[in-house]
C-alpha cells in the first residue's frame, strides 16, 4: 500500500510541477494573464509549485525504506523521473497540440523505462 500511495503522490506532485514549470507558457492565451510580467509569472509558478512540495515530500517520506517504505533512495529518484516524463508527455499532448512527439522521443522514453527496470532489478 505504501508503494501505491508513494506513486500516486508522485503523480500528483509532478502534475503540479509540470503546470508550474510549463503551464505559464499558455498564459498568453488567457485574458487575465496576457499582460503579466515575468515577476508575476514567477510568483504564480511558485504558488503552484508549493502544492508540488505538499505531495512530493510526503511521497518521499512514505516511500523511503529508511521510514518503512518499499523504495531505496535511488529507486525513489528514478520513479520520480519517469513519472515526471509521463506527466510531461500527457501535458504536452493535451495542452500543446502544436508540439509533436517524434520517434526519437519514444525511443528515449523507452530507454528511461528500461533504466527503471534495471534500477529495480534485484
TrEMBL record:
Pfam families given for it? DMT_6 (PF04342)
Q: Where are the transmembrane segments?
A: 36-55, 76-96, 102-120
The record's annotation in InterPro entries points to:
DUF486 (IPR007437)
- Keywords from the named record: Membrane, Transmembrane, Transmembrane helix
**Has the keyword Transmembrane been applied to this entry?**
yes
The name this protein goes by in its record: DMT family protein
Amino acid at each position: 500500500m505504501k508503494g501505491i500511495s508513494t506513486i500516486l503522490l508522485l503523480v500528483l506532485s509532478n502534475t503540479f510541477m509540470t503546470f508550474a514549470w510549463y503551464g505559464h507558457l499558455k498564459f498568453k492565451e488567457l485574458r487575465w494573464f496576457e499582460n503579466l510580467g515575468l515577476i508575476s509569472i514567477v510568483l504564480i509558478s511558485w504558488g503552484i509549485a508549493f502544492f508540488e512540495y505538499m505531495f512530493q515530500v510526503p511521497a518521499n517520506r512514505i516511500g523511503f525504506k529508511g521510514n518503512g517504505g518499499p523504495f531505496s533512495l535511488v529507486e525513489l529518484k528514478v520513479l520520480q523521473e519517469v513519472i515526471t516524463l509521463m506527466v510531461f508527455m500527457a501535458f504536452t499532448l493535451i495542452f500543446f497540440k502544436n508540439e509533436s512527439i517524434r520517434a526519437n522521443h519514444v525511443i528515449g522514453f523507452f530507454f528511461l523505462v528500461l533504466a527503471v527496470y534495471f534500477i529495480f532489478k534485484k
